[in-house]
Amino acid sequence: MASLCCDSRTLADGSKSRTWRVLIGGGKRPRHTIRLGKVSQRIAETARLRIEAMETAQLAGHSVDAETAAWLAKISDTIHSRIAKAGLVEPREDAEAAAKSASLGDLVERYIASRSNLKPNTLRNYETTKRLLLEHFGTDRPVARIHAGHARDYREWLVSRYASATVAREVKRARQFLEYARDCRLLGDNPFAKIKAGSQANSKRKHFVIREVIAKVLEELPDNNWRLALVLARYGGLRLPSELERLTWADIDWAGGRFTVRVPKKEHLDGHETRTIPLFPEIEPYLRQAFDAAEEGSVYVLPPRFHADGYVYAGVRRAVERAGVPRWPRLLVNLRASRETELLLEWPTHVVLSWIGNTEGVAIAHYTMVTDADFERASQPQKAAQSGTGWSPQEPSGQKKTAIYPANAKCMAAEAPPRGVEETPETREKQHSSDPRGAKSGSHSEATASLIAMLDSLPAEERAAVLEALRQTTERRA
After folding, report:
1. What is the homologous superfamily of the domain 205-372 according to CATH?
2. Whether the predicted model's global pTM rises above the 0.70 cut
3. Of 87, 60, 90, 57, whose CA–CA distance to 73 is shortest?
4. Among residues 34, 43, 46, which one has the least CA distance to residue 85?
5. Superfamily for the 101-200 domain
6. Which of 107, 287, 294, 376 could form a disulfide with 298 if both were Cys (CB 3.0 to 4.6 A apart)?
7. Residues 307-338: pLDDT tens digits?
């Protein structure tokens, strides 16, 4: 541990002068004295704490914390050289020389190595960014010689080769890599700081996989395990293979009609390690068949071979080819996106986001789609008017149904008696003798029959709401 010492002496004029020094080492480690000079006790104590932090980090084999690194960057060359002489930091001259000579290849390797617990997919993405950076700039290009102009050229080079979403992704990762170089004091400013990356959303690669296509692909899969993997992606919205490989029989709540999915992608976020999904009727038959066929003591829902990276993708791709249907982009991701789009037509947004496990912004940008069925329903507005309501089986359930009155609703309101008032021959005669459009008595008999039929088709609660609206309309007219 570092200790602080004060040297005090009396000057010729009788005043006292105090200087401070920090002692480090001891025991089996060599002792060093770092003289701070004539400073205040508060500044000396701050220096002791920072030097102690550097000594502790060196013993543990770690980098110093951000506050200590910032303090080191601000101190004078004299104090810095004394700390360097004690072996706690590299001399500034050497650091400047290293910054000038550090290559882009070394930086990228260093950055990837510094990221602990990288997921396999993230590591693959980083390797892709590394390949593109080194292909464009060269492995031996000094980091300090990359400026904003070079960064713009790199973006244009990407634009000439890739889609806009890929360009945006790679620019953001390059910015991330070079920001690490700036933190390591290998360059002053991040050359990618002002380069606009763009959006990573690519609507052209969205594709809604209809149920008829899935049915054809299911017929071409070799066994129930393969079919279960496909329906878990299409009707459960699972990420494949990461969420599929961790699904165990203990996660299935048969009585509760749900199952728990572990989310490796978000396991570092508190509260997002798992999510619960309903045991949808499209999934349950395949899941029960797999349970009946599972060996005694089996832990995982699907055999280990389904956990291998690329195994499910290759199997589904072959089945699609055998089924004779065009292969859609983002083969597995669009299965999950199709399910989320489907569920949002039936359930509230917050419920679907909880089941699928993404945010509303991500869902809109990368998952949800406008389908052909949406246009077909929108092009047939007469169906809603003829039925008397604007509700259809395709619309979200669990929400309040709102009655939509036909075009002659005002005429019907004149004919219907107010709620709670018994209809008499006198009121009936009065209603039929007053046509708001100047028509003769009895001209609304068909409209009345339509209203009665509509009311009979509605549940009691909605029928009461419609009658109440008609009563209010009649009172206003009176």
Report:
1. Intergrase catalytic core (1.10.443.10)
2. no
3. 90
4. 34
5. Tyrosine recombinase, N-terminal domain (1.10.150.130)
6. 294
7. 888 899 999 999 999 999 999 999 999 999 99
